[in-house]
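INTERNAL AUDIT FORM
Audit reference: QA-55
Scope: verify that the stored structure record matches its stored sequence.
Auditor: D.O.
Record contents follow.
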Amino acid sequence: MNRNKKLAKDIKLVEMFIKKDISKEKTISGLYQYIFKSNGKKIRARLNLIASSKNINKNRIKLASVIELLHTATLIHDDVVDDSAVRRGSKSVNKLWTNSHGVLIGDYIYSKAFMYMVDIGNNKILNELANATNDISQGELIQLDAIQNLNITLQKLKKISYYKTGRLFEAAAKTGAINSNANQAFISNISECAKNLGILFQIKDDMLDYSNNKKIGKPVFQDINEGKVTYPFFYAYKKANTKERKILKELLCSSKKVKSIDIELIKDLGGLKKAKQLANQYYKKSIECAMKIKNLDIREEMIELSNNALNREK
């Protein structure tokens, strides 16, 4: 069986594992089944499976499921915080039910993930994922500083990208490598590769928010409608003159829904171009780390993930 087919089979096992143990309570089971009816890309679970493919052990599928559960819980909570109406092309939990349902089912999914972590019984894995979960929460809180904040620094934006996205990518790879009893060099290389891959993924997310592509599975211009300063806006504002800055400030702070024509100034000022350059920097870092991985199959898998992240359109 070639490696792509093997990985696809393992992802199916993760999906089955996540769906097999559902509470009999009607409200919980209804929410849970709705959330996991869409299989999604499962990039973080895939990362974990790739990192743990060196030496297979019995907890491999369970650990990858933990990663996917943690990620899903953060998405549900994000939708509540952002008052998002759509997730993965479907109505979000908070819109179909209530904010309370979103918060509580997110907590329920978090708790399931930690129950499985305890089952795995590896303190290094538990420590890494506990720290990663804490960092992700910090990232969400720090991002509140980016709302209508025209003085935010590039360093702060990079920190948000790492905590929000890069951190779980990093933890997914690191715990997978730990689970396979890999040596420290492999753990370090694949973790750093995944970290840069995750930040690249977030930068692309920020760029896609300024596209007219309806295939991305969520509303476009959502970040700017919420008053969030992300990379394209940041770079455009830095380059803008006084008159242009006034227009951008009004756009960011307006209660009116942003339209395609409104963001032409951001494009004209090179906001997307500069964001793309930053994405390329993290892509190169990711590839450099991948090239240090001695296992050829794993190296190629990581390079493929990096290429997909850079070139994705949804």
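Auditor finding: record pair retrieved intact. The CA atoms of residues 31 and 195 lie 31 Å apart.
Action required: none
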